[in-house]
Task: structure prediction
Amino acid sequence: MTPSGKKTILIVEDDEGIGATLKIFLETEAYEVVLANNGLVALELLCTCEFPSLILLDMKMPIMNGWEFAAAFRAKYGKQVPMVVMTAAADAEQRAREVEAVDWLEKPFRFAELLQKIKKILDSSSLPAGEGSSP
Amino acid sequence: MLKAKGTQKYSIMFSLMLGILAVFAVFTLFFGVLLVDHRTKDLIKAADEKLLIAAELTREIFGADYHDRIVDEKSISKKEFADLVARNDELCRRLNLQYLWSVLLVGDRIVFTSATHSDVRNPQSHVASFFEPHQDPDAFAGAIHALLKPSFSSFKNEWGEGRMVLVARKDVHGRTYIFGASVQLREFNSLILRSVLTTAGIALAIFGVACLLVLLWVRSLTAPIALLTLAAQRIAEGDLDGPMPSASTREILALSDSFNEMRKRLKETLGRVVESERHLRTVILASPIALWEIDRDATLLLAEGRAFAQLGLKLGDGVGQSLFELHNDNAEVLASISRGLAGKEFSDECYLRGRYWINHYVPIRDPKGEVSGLVGVSVDISERKSAEIALKKTTEQYALLFGTMQQGVVFQEQEGPISSMNPAAVGILGFSPAEFLGKTSENLETVTRKENGEPFPGAEHPSMVALKTGKVVRDVVMQVYNPRVKEYRWINVTAVPLFLEQAKVPHQVFTVFSDITARVLMEQELRIAQETSEQAYRAKSQFLDIAAHELRTPVTAMSLLLQLAQKQFDQGRAVEAPILLQLSRQMDRLACLVVDLLDVSRLERGSVTLRREPTDLIALVSESLNTFALLAPTRPIAFVKPAQPLKIELDPVRISQVLSNLLENAIRYTKENVAIEVSLETNEERIRVSVKDHGAGISEKEQAELFKPMFRGVSDEVVRSSGLGLGLFVCREVMRLHGGTIGVSSRMGQGSIFYFELPRKGHG
Result:
């Protein structure tokens, strides 16, 4: 959690249009947003930025895709950060299970839907954000 | 009386009698001869004495000087000589002599000086005259020589034996004179007869006694033999139970014992014979045969055996009747009977009264060797015959099936040699029957392969396995090389072991196989077609996934941007410019995707036409590179080109599209700041444009698939990148339309060179 009390959300999404739009929108909903255009960039950003309370993860990305990122992230930081998979694939649920995500969003989706899921996850989460293995 | 070869056999008694008789005859003869001889000697002695006395007496009566006074033939008168003869005759008669005479040797003559009549009782009979020369002077030689000693001699004349004495003396003149007397021994024969009769009478008496004794002895000896004979006769007549007579002598007793033993043995043997005959008869009666016998006139003498019932006859029916009459409706049977009666031993088959028979004809011959009858054995073979007919029918059906069926059939014997096969087998395997027969699956010169193309060992052949295991081996698929058609045929083989009765090991194996080549080839084609279609389906499905993903991404972005714009609008704010810019970009992207899809669709349908115009290819490539330099300023691109412009007929838009695709790929699959090299080479015929990158390289397998529609490499870098994967397919089609080619040479880890070649002389 930031000093301003906002919760941080990490968005890993290669498509610029989607990533930027989500960032603008979530910031208007009073969230701190960190945007990475692939898994590797996301892992690099995690070293410097505020530790996220939630990760929105695209699956198909160049350089490092969603699966690789999830595996690397879990190996390094454990399982406490909930992930939500965003995918254009038909088997969104299957992909969510593969990376042990708590929920998923099928592209295209509505902001209202995304917001609802984020609020639900963050409200039920008893874990204080940023605690633990943040460097 | 018993008879044997040429010799008559006599009873003991008769033989003995004959023997005794012979012995007595010999003895009688011997003694008779002795007696006769003895009596004859006595008689001669007596006669000799009488003759000497008579001769001496006559000389005394004549006077010792009688001859002294004889000078010539006139010395004695006829009257005196007649008196002398009468006196001599009288003396002869008295002394029962034949002749009395005297002779005188005068010179070389011998002349009568006295004589008697030739028949002393008949004075008319002949008498020698005085001084008549004797006709046989030699008769006196012995007497002259003996001188004074009487000389006796025997003679024989027409009246029988006779005895003569001559006594020679000298007269005063020194002349020799001889007195002689002879007697005819008339009583000799009667004497001998008497002696013989006496001897014979004695011998007969002795023979009678001897015969009586012998008879008694022989009777005592032959009585037990006779009893034994009777016993033997009883045995001969079949009475084997009567006791054997006891015997008086050891030899007879032994004989009797032997007879008894023989009787017992005979009884046993006979018992066995009777038993076996009864058995044989039972067998004949129970056997499904007809045993019959006919004489030379074909009259039935014997008819036995159960088979007669098959003819609807009772045992013994027809006996006494002629077979020629009984079977007069069956020429075949009559011919066989005639043939048998002609002396031929043979067997035949006939059809008689609704049944089939096999007949054995055996002619019987009398001692002269002539046929006296015929014995026959007939066996009812109707069941066998009907089985044979059924079998023949089955065999014909089988042969028809065997010959016409499309499946190949091969029979192999226990150790594997092929014993028969049908024409289909020959056709499928392409070997002649001669090349087959006797071969096994192991040494047959066929080349067989398994389904997967590996060699098929002969020992694993279904037929060999079936022979070894005794189990059916089903539906084994294999390939066999047919040397006639010079190609492999696919066959489906099933081998069935065949067993005889209860045998545990098969004696044959029946292998049936179908030529499934057409089916297999069809299946293969079908499988390839199926694989191709499945591949196409998978590719299409994959493409749809990719397309959906690629389309969803701009749609998602646009959707989110619009929602944001809506929110800003709802809040009464102006929509921010970056949102609109993003919206525009996403829209372009979407449009590009749609154009790509349309391109592919049109290329696949062949509805793309080129817009050719004379173009400088060098200028065209330079232009494209400049555009890329603006879009991706961080990618250094080197361009190696000829100095002179290269103007050819082409569709500049499409060629730019191809080049862009190759450049996009190069950029997409290589890291930033790594140079991309573009070169343009030319010769007389072709122009070649190459784009070389230093990326991961492409495997050979992927290279082959690269230019197919909707292909996207599976390597990590490919997966990460976006795009529909239609680029290279579009490039290939564009080049094809230009009459050019497109290709790639690449090695893993060493980058790739994509190139396209265009003909210098415009296409078409």
